[in-house]
Write a structure and sequence with these properties.
This protein is α/β, with parallel strands linked by helices. The chain is 44% helix and 13% strand. Strands 3-2-1-4-5 form a five-stranded mixed sheet.
Length: 396
Amino acid sequence: MTAATFLGLMTFKPLTFFAVALAGWMNRRQQDAIAYLRTENQILREKLGQKRLILNESQKCRLATAAMKLGKDLLYQFGTLFSPRPLLKWHRWFVARKYDSSDRRGKRGPVPTKANSIRKLVIQMAQENPGWGYGRMYGELKKLGYDVHWQTVRRVMLDHGLLDDPDKPYKTTWKDFLKSHWESLAACDLFTCESWGLKGLTRYLVFFVIDVSTRRVEIAGIHADPCETQMVQWARNLTDAQDGFLKDKRVLIHDRDPLYTKKFREVLEAAGVRALKLPKRSPNLNALAEAFAAGIRRECLNKMILLSEKHVRYVIVARFGDLEVLPLGCGGCDFCEKCTCPDAPCRFPQEAMASVEAQGLDIKALVESVGLSYINGANTVSYVGMVMVRPRGQEP
């Protein structure tokens, strides 16, 4: 080898040098990442101890595919959360599944109409009656004339997670309580409003009752300084056998205000209405009454200056106490994800909202009669809703 040839081999190449340096740096970073993951796996194994990790089919497939690329020796070296034997076993199982010709088998037979109808009926009964077990549900299906075995009912409930944990004691929730007592439930509360008069600023307490099922509100009384006698008289008016607001109710929800005295509750109980006192600091359990009180303050009282007791009664009673309201939506009711009508009655009639068209109203003529524009240009959709209001007791 000549000297010129040797010097040509020793010529410095910057690109090659930087490529080798970058490859070495990336390899070192990969080794650091692998060392961290191995340490993390060891810590997880120590925390788990003898506990088993239950994987689903998709997780097994992903893990087995990655494990097959490493091989048994590397898996033993890394000390993963799973031993190499089940990982390789899962891989062989998925390979066998790929070639078992399951995708070329004959088509399935007709859909079992009877089985599907029983399944839907069991799910509906379980949702509407959460306290029923499969034994009670099996008996109800037999009463309806369905020839079904109790194990079928139990299997359907197990598949859909409708069976309660036997070790967990059954506890009635407020949601279940409201559903079972919806039509016979009412709530009451007090809110304040201030009025100017000859004696200066006077505070009035407004006592109201709301029907939970229909959201109808009754202003039971307004007084500057109500006492037990006044509250008892209001309770008698509410439980009047002829036209009392609570004549068809069985439960009245109220908070822990001292005005709800023992004699007040006794008057209600004498008329067959149970006075249910709420726990401390739980306004969310009387949400409808709290929402009405907040709404009347926000929409009316905070925007007005009241000048006398007569003015207070006119604003609150005449404008909010003697009205019935029917909201109509701009389109079909979307309270439920899947509507049961017309095959079955509505499951939540108190929450359903009919559309304007359902009341037989001509929307185009209605909008034009009030001076609004129905067509607002191309590629524009106009939605129309309305709220119908009338004095209580007035015939339509």
